[in-house]
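As promised in the previous annual report, we have extended the structural survey to additional targets. Below is the entry for Chemotaxis protein methyltransferase.
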Amino acid sequence: MAGIDKAREFEYTLDDFNFLRKISNRHSGILVPDDKFDMFYSRLSKRVRRLGFNRFAEYCQYLQDHPEQEFTEFINAVTTNLTSFFREMHHFEFVAQTLLPELLKKNQAQKQIRVWSAGCSTGEEPYSLAMTLLENVPRDWDIKILATDLDTNVLAVAAEGVYPLDRVATIGEQRLRDWFQKGSGSQNHKVRIKSPVRQLIHFKQLNLMQDWPMKGGFDFIFCRNVLIYFDRETKQRLANRYAGLLRAGGYLFIGHSESLHQLDTPFTLLGNTIYQYEKNRI
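The corresponding structure token record, generated without further manual editing, is:
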């Protein structure tokens, strides 16, 4: 057992960390490396304090004995959520300049576009997608965006669609006028996503490791900076599950530090971490 750090508010050992990361991995599939030892302490200290414990071992026991009450709080605390509007801008440029013109021809009969933002965090990604679609798709088309995340706290923020002004500092003036409403009075330091954008998105809690209720038919899927947390086998399984929900020729967007290289999937790399689904490849 690791020694106790006297400088910490709560007793916290390597045994505690190993117990907690094992539960996290079993539930979410996310690999937690050794260097996240301090991160787990800082993120869970608030829960330990609120529950009146002096040692993380007490929290581990409580989590084991009362999963219904505590498990969601635990997962929310240890999940990483880093995002911004129009992050990795080249993806949105590809959507606007290449993907949507293709879909406007391909889906002309039904005039329908379906998108999934998997791992949507606090909502900036799906809202950025919604703005891009509204700017480039005729108004009489039926657009729906599913936005999912494991963390219920970030989903609540996303569904509200309210952000501090500094979160939209890099967005152009035209987009700010078109899609954001500035707060007044006590809310003058915040903005809210306008209703036409919010109405396109359905936010839902989803664990990627469990069953997916969606039937598919997505034209493209954004799953960025999610695969990086999984082992090779899980990455391959997830990529193939995504393929199963895409229409033939659909697209998968992943994060800049991620790759499907050397994985057995029906995707072809187009460049810039953009992949296309080839139905008959496997």
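The chain has two domains: 14-78, 89-277. The two ends are 48 Å apart (CA to CA). These points will be discussed at the next consortium meeting with the crystallography subgroup.
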